[in-house]
Write a structure and sequence with these properties.
60s Ribosomal Protein L30, Chain: A, Phosphoribosyl-aminoimidazole Synthetase, Chain A, domain 2, seven-stranded mixed β-sheet, 13 strands
């Protein structure tokens, strides 16, 4: 079973009281009503051999990335982190030094976002290190931004530069765009947003599908990271579109506002206008020479196979 097929199946099985569950499965975070306020809830995991390599990167970096991934989901909804809990499955034989450094990696980044790590669970098993982090967040005066609100004619923008995140170890050191997302949501009329964890080619399609729109991306406008270590222009572009693990923001907003945003650059990180939502159902890549082709299929998706 493929990851997104399973998510679709879960959504088909879900039945909620809309007075309690405002946003259910399928977005970057759920939104639930509790004690007269809305709370964002997100959970993400980081696995040795998939999201990091413990022997190479060490436990502090592993813990930091696990926390950063969940905080990045909060950023995708423009929430303010409130508290976190973590569940850790340690490899058998792991010593106190590994466990303590893992905790420090989790805790240090959480503290930077005023998101106290308030509890969790620890176990040991014969498999590799696995870390799961749940973050609770609040809107705090900024309306949660969902994946499903993009409209035909909206501009499509991204923060930062894309591709090569594993080569430059940016996949470990990235800073979740929590503050940037809240500035965007507070000053501009964002219609949709997502964080780029699986790759622009994959994550843009999630926004288009949720919103019922298509997209036209300008190949020349896609910002390519210096970490992309090849000179062939088509391959450099493919890497920026498909590598994943960038954890930048992709968002849709009215074109006039996007142009103002790109002109002002108020975030402290570069924002690029890379395309436009359309009333078609396809997602295409437009080249300067006039060629238009389907956006490459790519990005990361977890799969399971029967044994």
């Amino acid at each position: 079973m493929r990851e997104f097929e399973f998510i679709d199946w879960i959504r088909s099985q879900s039945r909620f009281d809309p007075a309690v569950v405002r946003v259910g499965p399928g977005d970057d975070a759920a939104v639930v009503a509790w004690a007269g306020r809305r709370v964002l809830v997100t959970v993400d995991q980081a696995l040795d051999g998939v999201h990091f390599e413990l022997a190479r990167h060490g436990p502090q970096q592993a813990g930091r990335k696990a926390m950063a991934r969940s905080l990045s989901d909060v950023a995708a909804m423009a929430g303010r982190p409130w508290a976190a809990v973590a569940s850790v499955a340690l490899p058998q034989g792991a010593g106190a030094d590994l466990a303590q450094n893992l905790y420090m990696g989790l805790r240090k980044l959480a503290d930077e976002f005023a998101c106290p790590l308030v509890g969790g669970d620890v176990g040991a098993w014969t498999g590799p290190l696995a870390i799961s982090v749940t973050v609770l967040a609040v809107p705090d005066g900024v309306e949660p931004v969902l994946r499903g609100g993009a409209k035909p004619g909206d501009a499509i923008c991204v923060s930062g530069a894309l591709g090569g995140a594993w080569r430059g170890l940016r996949h470990l050191s990235f800073m979740p765009r929590v503050h940037e997302a809240r500035i965007l949501a507070g000053r501009y009329g964002l219609h949709a947003m997502i964080d780029l964890s699986d790759g622009l080619a994959s994550d843009l399609r999630h926004v288009c599908r949720a919103s019922g729109v298509g997209a036209r991306i300008s190949a020349a406008a896609v910002p390519i990271s210096p970490d992309v270590d090849c000179q062939n222009p088509p391959e450099r572009l493919r890497r920026a579109l498909c590598d994943g693990e960038d954890y930048e923001l992709l968002f849709a907003l009215p074109m006039e506002q996007a142009r103002d945003l790109v002109r002002r650059q108020p975030l402290g990180v570069q924002v690029s206008l890379i395309g436009q939502c359309t009333d078609q159902q396809d997602v295409v890549l437009a080249h300067d020479d006039g060629r238009v082709e389907p956006l490459p299929a790519g990005g990361y998706e977890h799969t399971t196979q029967a044994r």
